[in-house]
Amino acid sequence: MQTNTPPRNTIRLTRRGRLVTLVAGAVAAGTAVVVPLLLLAGDRDQARPATLVIPEGWRANQVYDAVDKALRLPPGSTRKSLGKAALRLPGEAEGNPEGYLFPATYPIPEGATPESLLRTMVDTANDKYGLAPVTAGAQRNAMNLHQAVTVASIVQAEADTKADMGKIARVILNRLARGMPLQMDSTVSYALEHDPGQTGQGSGQVQSPYNSYQRMGLPPTPIDNPGADAMRAALNPTPGDWLYFVTVRPGDTRFTADYDEHLRNVAEFHAVHQSAAPAQPDGGVPWSSPSPVPAQPSGG
């Protein structure tokens, strides 16, 4: 199954323009009058961004790093502040804000702290997710809110285009309904981020509750912070019977319910990407590359 995890871009923050000191000299009747037009700000204010941009699909670790940089704090400061941030998270999150740091552009007011910025992100998510249509959509698909956010996070990581999101959400729900493992590389990638010592192992060998090749059902938490489009797809998946998908080339994602057809699509994928890394012993490919097909047909 294709698991196309979008590349993680470096942080791009909107920065204030550098303040400039302008001094105008006016000489009148032999008297020099100096008129300061704009005072020079200190170095700290020069580098401080006016806003903090959190892109869709960023993981919590990336958000923490971005807040540290925006507030010019030592690395790890924001993560250490979680315990005193008093975030309004659902009980199922068990204090982990992954999935609830809503992607948006946030102003950085004077006196902002890691706790205040994280609270704003979570409060924004609560405002978005607390709407009646969100609750109704989750219930319609036999999910609670936390499960819906988890599905949306996988959709966000997997989708090659916005148009694919609804279909990928349907594949996830169809596989869950049939008792099939999700077999998504995006969840394995998340596991490896939290246990980098396992990097280099095939996707089927990673020992983690996030290994959706081994573990049935959804991962225990979201794997990133999904945007509104991914959440909308999770709540209103496109009708269809698809169980497999593979992105043969950018913009060309093939969905099917037939395993043999999927194998043909996968063969085309390999023909297009002949320079891809060699297969691993478990029948997959390294987690960081697209893994378009499980080692064996899954589900019944």
From TrEMBL:
The record marks 158 as: Important for catalytic activity. Residues 275-300 are annotated as: Disordered. Its EC number is 4.2.2.29. It catalyses: a peptidoglycan chain = a peptidoglycan chain with N-acetyl-1,6-anhydromuramyl-[peptide] at the reducing end + a peptidoglycan chain with N-acetylglucosamine at the non-reducing end. Keywords: Cell membrane, Cell wall biogenesis/degradation, Lyase, Membrane, Transmembrane, Transmembrane helix. The keyword Cell membrane applies. The chain crosses the membrane at residues 20-41. Functions as a peptidoglycan terminase that cleaves nascent peptidoglycan strands endolytically to terminate their elongation. It is found in: Cell membrane. Belongs to the transglycosylase MltG family. It is a single-pass membrane protein. PANTHER family: ENDOLYTIC MUREIN TRANSGLYCOSYLASE. The keyword Transcription does not apply. It comes from Streptomyces achromogenes. This is Endolytic murein transglycosylase. Pfam families: YceG. It is an enzyme of class 4 (lyase). Residues 289-300 have a biased composition (Pro residues).
